[in-house]
Write a structure and sequence with these properties.
By secondary structure, the chain is α+β, with helices and mostly antiparallel strands. The protein contains eight helices and 17 strands. The chain folds into two domains: 229 residues, Rossmann fold; 117 residues, OB fold (Dihydrolipoamide Acetyltransferase, E2P). The protein binds adenosine-5'-diphosphate (ADP) and magnesium ion (MG).
């Protein structure tokens, strides 16, 4: 088996009394797009700075490509870092910013110019070579920072919230570009973000961090569909608790056709017995429900309806006492007339296959 691009063992870092990294083990594969996802203060930047060599760990080791680099200086490691604020040199034009690392490594002038222009072509900025950073937009500066790191052809590129300063539209565009760039270059990316959607969109695998510890490592689908802990269930997307199981809001189907719903129903929802009994509630209005329905259901009353264009959010108080959020795509509903369902009796249904369990409690979804 080839050595991991990045291998971290028993990593700890304390700042005074603050335990920023509290025992982290990680193996990141060659060519992987790997994300570290966690809330502010969870230790993401500290782990990244330790991999880069800007910070010395209190304990533990870092290997790059099978070599222990724990004691090596940043410039002796085959990594480059892209920071959130880009850290471009304002007095140098774009091409000189990109060349900088090659110049430090004494690459001959003609070669480094050629490679810098090539890197700029890679981020579609070769027409901007003579500009100063302040003459560029935020997205363009971000691409210069990427070119400046990629020109050194590192084995591992570390990215600390590199899209954090961009507005939503540009961030989404850059996500697509970043992913394409990583595939093309075949470089291992270690990408730090607090944005769960960004992590799920971009990554081959995600590590979810909380308070200096890794809660779960897995593919986006594993982390989202099968959260290992209550923290992951609450931080990566939102989750409902129904009895002793959890179900994602978009996996709940709301049947608002209340005509056949009996308020005094014997429905047991997801409490374990779950699902329709023989000839039970499944014979109701959802009998022909198809894809949206499920083999588990519960009755409740709509506490709130929020129309959000593409989707509608229902907040439903189940008769069992659980409050759940259900997200319904507005496939057929094209107006705000969903609002009239506030206060209505509804049946929530879902598939047992979409249930998951996590130990402990997590915060209920917001009202
Ligand atoms: P994140 O990047 O996930 O927001 P950080 O790694 O920056 O988290 O920080 C983790 C914890 O370590 C925080 O509590 C932060 O305040 C603390 N910390 C980080 N760097 C330092 C430092 N140089 N001195 C003191 N405390 C620090
Ligand atoms: Mg940070």
């Amino acid at each position: 088996m080839p050595a991991s691009a990045v291998r971290i063992r028993s990593l700890r870092k304390t700042f005074g009394s603050v335990e920023a990294v509290a025992g982290v083990d990680l193996d990141i594969g060659d060519g992987e797009f790997f994300s570290m996802l966690g809330p502010s203060g969870s230790g993401k930047t500290t782990v990244l700075r330790i991999i880069a060599g800007f910070e010395r760990p209190t304990a533990g080791t870092v290997e790059l490509g099978g070599r222990d680099v724990t004691a090596l200086a940043p410039f002796d490691r085959d990594v480059n870092t892209v920071f959130q604020d880009y850290a471009l040199f304002p007095h140098l034009d774009v091409v000189r910013n990109v060349e900088y690392g090659l110049k430090v490594r004494r690459v001959p002038r003609a070669e480094r110019r050629e490679r810098a222009l090539e890197a700029l072509r890679g981020v579609r900025l070769d027409g901007m070579a003579a500009r100063r950073p302040q003459e560029l937009s935020g997205g363009q500066r971000q691409r210069v920072a990427l070119a400046r790191a990629l020109v050194n052809e590192p084995r591992v590129l570390l990215l600390d919230e590199p899209l954090g300063a961009l507005d939503l539209k540009l961030r989404e565009e850059m996500q697509v570009e970043l992913k394409a760039l990583q595939r093309r270059a075949g470089i291992t990316f270690v990408f730090v973000t607090h944005d769960q959607e960004e992590a799920l969109t971009l990554s081959d695998r995600v590590a979810v961090l909380d308070r200096g510890r890794i809660e779960q490592v897995g593919t986006p689908a594993e982390v989202y569909e099968r959260p290992a802990t209550a923290f992951v269930a609450g931080f990566v997307g939102t989750s409902n608790r129904i009895g002793d199981v959890c179900v994602r809001p978009e996996k709940l189907h709301v049947d608002t056709d209340a005509g056949g719903i009996d308020a005094g129903g014997t429905d047991e929802g997801g409490t374990g017995a779950g699902g329709a009994g023989p000839g039970g509630a499944a014979a109701g209005p959802e009998a022909a429900g198809g894809a949206g329905s499920g083999d588990r259901h519960a009755l409740g009353t709509v506490a709130e309806v929020v129309y959000a264009g593409a989707a509608t959010r229902f907040v439903v108080d189940l008769d069992s006492g659980d409050r759940v959020v259900a997200l319904q795509q507005n496939l057929r509903t094209s107006s705000m007339d969903v609002m009239r369902h506030r206060g209505a009796r509804v049946r929530i249904s879902w598939h047992a296959a979409h249930e998951f369990r996590v130990p402990g409690a997590f915060p209920l979804p917001p009202k």
